[in-house]
Amino acid sequence: MTDHELATKLKELADAPAPPPRIDLDRARRLGGRRRRARTTALVVGCAAVVTAAGLTAVSVFRTTPPPAPPAVLPTPAPVAPAPTDNPLVAKASFGWLPEPITGIEYGSGGHGDYALAIGRGDLAPMIWLAVYDQEPPLDRRHDMGGRAVRVPVRVGDRDGYWVTTDARDPLNQGNSYLRWPTPDGRWAELNAYYLALPDLQQVLLRVAGEVKFANRAVPLPLHVTGLPETFRVADVNLWRRPDADNVPWRAVLQYSSNGALATITVTLPGGRADGLGTPVCTTKNGLRACVAIDHPQAAGVTSQELLSRITLLGPDESKWTTHVISP
Questions:
Q1: Nearest to residue 272, comparing CAs of 299, 239, 303, 237?
Q2: What is the mean pLDDT of the chain?
Q3: How far apart are CA 282 and CA 289, in angstroms?
Q4: Band (134; pLDDT cuts 50, 70, 90)
Q5: DSSP letter at 73?
Q6: Consecutive H or E run containing 74
Q7: How sure is the predictor about 67, in pLDDT bands with cuts at 50, 70 and 90?
Q8: Which residue range is the domain that position 275 belongs to?
Q9: Pairwise CA distance, residues 176 & 179, whole Å
Q10: Average pLDDT, stretch 75-85?
Q11: Long-range contacts: 243-251, Cβ < 8 Å, 24+?
């Protein structure tokens, strides 16, 4: 191509209209505006987040942390008042309410256990035994349930107790009923009822249990004894009320061991029988009969007659009986 031809082409190109642009400027402006707004929003939000976090951090640093809650304090069981020392028969608990078939209350203390017994009349007298234990007794305490004893939970007053039975479907255990519950002073109480047939018996026994009073209480007795030998130790003391078996309304029996000997004091109304081993020596005074039997007087250190002479009988009026039975 000559110089003249090249110049002609360049002139034609310069005079030709420009081609349409490949970029849509309006669309580009719209997109650019959106991106600027997005960046601005992100920046504002980011700054706000930083400020908020800083504020929270400042509040967390300067806010006073509340002290931890003090540990819960469990109530301490009330202490048990000491038992009196001048009465060999002390009840750890007393009945507050009893059903109608019950006609009397017996008490026992010593080697065969400490108990109160609510008892009725008849050859198969209804009985409700009440005992208190320092610790929860084994489930089958008497070993007469053949390893099948189970608990049936029940509410006793304001405490969680349970029935002991061989069949959970029968809390009354076929009429030989056991009900246990913790006492306010940290011990355990048990009712054992049998020969007791009443409508709604479960509720009856729950009411009996709910109204039991727990405290060491000296049981009044119809005698006063002066000068027991120092070697005498309480073996068993009982106040029986079984007129159908004894032919008298009650019998008080005090048994002591001494150097292997057994000394038994029995006080009844006239006509009652004497308990114990050995030949009894008896006297009747002030409307009562007292007998003393000692199986080995030499070991006991006192004869039956000597011990009998130290006994004062207080008469059949129970309101005149004493809780201060033994004195030096």
A1: 239
A2: 83
A3: 7
A4: very high
A5: -
A6: none
A7: low
A8: 223-327
A9: 10
A10: 62
A11: 243/121, 244/121, 244/122, 244/123, 244/125, 246/272, 246/273, 247/271, 247/272, 248/272, 250/104, 251/275
Residue 195: pLDDT over 90 = yes
Tokens at 198, concatenated: 């009443």
Contact 136, 180 (CB under 8 A): yes
Region label for 143, one of left (φ > 0), alpha (ψ between -120 and 50) or beta (otherwise): left
Distance of CA 228 to the CA centre of its chain: 38
Last residue of a domain, one of 218, 242, 273: 218
pTM of this prediction?
0.74
Q: Tell me the three state secondary structure of residue 328.
A: coil
Question: Residue holding tokens 């987040």?
Answer: 49
Residues 228 and 208 in one domain: no
Q: Position 175: which residue type?
A: G
Residue 116 inside a domain? The answer is: yes
Residues 244 and 155 in one domain: no
Helix (H) or strand (E) holding 30: helix 25-62
Residue 244, pLDDT > 50, answer yes
The type of residue at 152 is V
